[in-house]
Structure prediction request, 225 residues.
Amino acid sequence: MNAALTLTDVTLLHGDGDETVRALDEVDLEVRPGELVAIVGPSGSGKSSLLAVAGALTKPTSGSARLGETDLTAASARELTRIRRERLGFVFQSGNLVPALTSLDQVRLPLAFGRADTGRDPLELLTAVGMEHKARRRPHELSGGERQRVGIARALVTRPDVLLVDEPTAALDRQRSQDIVGLLAHEAHERGVATVMVTHDHDVLHHCDRVLEMVDGRLGPHGMM
Ligand code: ADP
Ligand code: MG
Prediction:
């Protein structure tokens, strides 16, 4: 099957002159539909930068990023907006919620912008992430881990081709971490969502189809770097 996400020879430099940081260094990555790939590695090694390039939030300095057949590095700003809404799910470390909205409205919101007929029910997704009892709460009433769980439900409601998740279990206890990554694996395997998850949490890696490691901006097999 064709890859859902393809990064080819991606290099990303931050800053300039003596201050240049090579956040990504000749990274290659292919993720197939239905695959859950974990990326581990030390802080500052480039994991969030990789998600930003894959999610069309950052253009790489060189190399290319493709979503299916679409070249993200060649797409217009207008096309990228549509792609982010309809084909990509992005779960930030912070949850990135809208301050004024309840949990349930956060999950409903993407349906107002993209396709409304995705067949996913916002309340069911909120239940799947264990947040139905806080459906009427606003972000300032939620913990960091709870915000991120709402962010996961919101990312899934549009049925994205590719889901990018940054540290989903960092603020969760052991059992909840298993539940959330189990849900990501289920969504990947049952619905074909190509998922890239950055994590520090080695206890959840058994849910993943592949584990890669990032060191100093370079991506390779886990344990080989
Ligand atoms: P990780 O998510 O693995 O902790 P990041 O991708 O956030 O790593 O960062 C990789 C490197 O790029 C780090 O050295 C970081 O300081 C640097 N970096 C990240 N974002 C920026 C930015 N916007 N400007 C300058 N340097 C950045
Ligand atoms: Mg990070």
Remarks:
- The mean pLDDT is 94.
- The two ends are 28 Å apart (CA to CA).
- The helical segments are 47-54, 77-86, 103-113, 122-128, 144-156, 174-191.
- The beta strands are 5-14, 21-31, 36-40, 62-67, 70-71, 88-91, 162-166, 194-198, 210-215, 218-221.
